Design the sequence.
């Protein structure tokens, strides 16, 4: 008898659960169908033939715009979890990332998308920033674009019942997290492949013809060749890195000269002890190469900057009679030629 009662109780609980679940589904459908009349947005030019699902998207866009404006007024970061809560509170509808992607499909230039910085405990979140257009203009633009998509759909379909806006491709969160270890390894492989490609047959033959180190003696020829080729690739990569550093050394000279000129104007002086000048150029592009770069500038434009010895110290002198814009142009042209 007790078993039957337990079974009856379990069956009753199951029915109650199913009924509650069905009521929740119905409530969600009613929420989504709250705005089904296109005339609600007739002010912004929305077509009266727009199907309810698309009108619902307009309703979400309107709530999204309102929420973004509110967050901006309170100087809050508009990451997607915050936006989702605000939109759902405003529209009384669910708002998912998929629905946001459909909004982006209709109005791709509406938002600047970025990510929050990831931390040890949090993943990057999508951030949404709007342009400076007014709300009515943005609503009108959205409705016009949606009308165009509906017209395009109706050109090949008899009714608008099946009209759906596809989801746009949103930027992946991996962009904010940086390359994965696997991606870094693949990048390294590409660099090695590029180094190998730089090896001409004659250079390869000359390199492999060098005396064989003792540690490689007795190994199979294919293995020796592989080891020697890898050694060559390392040398090429090292040389390429050195070339890149030299290029940056030259390319940042105009930027350093800007700082020297600004410091001269700020202090009202045209002569400085080299060591003190280096200390005060705290935004130099290559902090550990300031002295070398100043020496290089002195070689390029000695009529504007010179480095002289004075009382056991080195002094940088600027010629105030030279117009700095002309000096910078000469430096920039010299850098390009090099």
Sequence:
């Amino acid at each position: 008898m007790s078993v039957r009662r337990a079974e009856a109780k379990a069956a009753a609980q199951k029915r109650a659960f199913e009924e509650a679940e069905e009521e929740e589904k119905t409530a969600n459908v009613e929420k989504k169908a709250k705005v089904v009349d296109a005339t609600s947005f007739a002010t912004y030019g929305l077509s009266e033939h727009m199907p309810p699902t698309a009108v619902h998207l307009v309703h979400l866009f309107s709530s999204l715009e309102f929420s973004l404006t509110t967050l901006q007024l309170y100087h809050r970061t508009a990451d997607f979890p915050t936006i989702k809560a605000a939109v759902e509170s405003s529209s009384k509808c669910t708002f998912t990332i998929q629905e946001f992607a459909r909004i982006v499909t209709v109005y791709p230039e509406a938002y600047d998308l970025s990510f929050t910085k990831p931390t040890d405990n949090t993943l990057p979140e999508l951030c949404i920033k709007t342009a400076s257009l007014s709300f009515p203009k943005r609503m009108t633009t959205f409705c016009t674009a949606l009308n165009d998509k509906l017209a395009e759909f109706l050109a090949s379909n008899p009714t608008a019942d099946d009209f759906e806006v596809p989801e746009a491709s949103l930027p992946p969160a991996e962009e904010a997290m940086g390359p994965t270890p696997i991606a870094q390894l693949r990048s390294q492989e590409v660099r090695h492949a590029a180094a190998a490609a730089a090896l001409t047959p004659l250079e390869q033959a000359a390199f492999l013809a060098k005396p064989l180190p003792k540690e490689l003696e007795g190994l199979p020829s294919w293995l020796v060749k592989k080891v020697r080729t890898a050694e060559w690739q390392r040398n090429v990569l090292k040389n390429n890195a050195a070339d890149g550093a030299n290029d940056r050394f030259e390319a940042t000279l105009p930027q350093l000269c800007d700082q020297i000129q600004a410091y001269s104007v700020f202090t009202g002086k045209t002569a400085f002890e080299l060591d003190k000048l280096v200390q005060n150029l705290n935004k130099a592009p290559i902090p550990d190469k300031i002295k070398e770069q100043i020496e290089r500038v002195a070689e390029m434009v000695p009529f504007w900057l010179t480095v002289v010895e004075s009382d056991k110290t080195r002094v940088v002198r600027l010629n105030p009679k030279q117009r700095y814009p002309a000096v910078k142009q000469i430096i920039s042209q010299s850098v390009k030629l090099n």
Observations:
- The radius of gyration is 34 Å.
- The beta strands are 111-115, 126-130, 271-273, 305-310, 313-318.
- DSSP finds 13 helices and five strands in the chain.
